[in-house]
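Hey all, sorry for the wall of text incoming. These are the two entities for the joint prediction.
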Amino acid sequence: NAGVTQTPKFQVLKTGQSMTLQCAQDMNHNSMYWYRQDPGMGLRLIYYSASEGTTDKGEVPNGYNVSRLNKREFSLRLESAAPSQTSVYFCASSETAGGYQPQHFGDGTRLSIL
Amino acid sequence: RKEVEQDPGPFNVPEGATVAFNCTYSNSASQSFFWYRQDCRKEPKLLMSVYSSGNEDGRFTAQLNRASQYISLLIRDSKLSDSATYLCVVNPGTDSWGKLQFGAGTQVVVTP
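and here's what came out:
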């Protein structure tokens, strides 16, 4: 079972470039999430989608946009990358939102902004 | 104050020994709790949910203390493969719908 698949695994960008991180899940989950993880800090929620057709801001949404393309796919876009966005990005999904169901994570995208 | 706090460690544990560590949370209305493990440069993986009465899964035991607002994880008969960072995860309640809060993790190193 693939679970949650993220692409790309690694990316290096220059300041000001844009890119989209892709995420797809095959577990028929309704809810999907984007997190970033920085050294010494817990995962921080960027955006989430409780269900197909909805998206909401998390703790650190500035500089990012998202699209819930369909039930399976949830993409994260950096319009003008900044060095402060250097991080490891994780996509996750859960059966429902509300925090009672555990979340399942993809294996991450390591993004460096020069 | 962080919403979810963990001792970063590392906890150095001889193989076969028992290790325990806690996680404190700030929101008394928190609804549900999880422990995840994260190996170096890998994704977090669910270890276990934490139930009000406490629960056990093999060598792992999780406890919840609502009065003091902490959860604990105990690992018995530690294996080398238990070396990882353990993340405490809290659902802060219905007002923060779906927005789980993650601790920064406790590192455990099991030595031969």
